[in-house]
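Now for today's protein.

===
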Amino acid sequence: MLALMFLKIYEGCSDRKLIYHLNRNIEFQMFCGIFLGKEDISNFKVVCSIRSELSRNLNIKVVQNVLAGYWNPYLNQTDIMLEDATCYETSMRYQTNANRKNSTAAHIVNNFKRKGRAGKHEEHRLINAK
């Protein structure tokens, strides 16, 4: 069950796509310790059930201690704490040409709404006076 959740995060796929890969990909099956043969899992909602069961029964502190004990010889600078920010909601966007165009258009529209037409004319007069 934990292996399936690891694959879901590693592949970055939905529950439906995860089951699709599990049905078609022998490597996924081997990683999860199952062999489906000619059978298929048709209910993709089983992933949600597995996730719920793990959240109820998995003692994360014990798992962390086991993983830390295993990985400790390979870790450097263990006195430094790093935090993964991917779990936090954010409005950060990668700047692509489309994003720049959309944010510029939104900025223009917002300024126009805030200043109104009179504000725009006043702005032009100030520019022309310089």
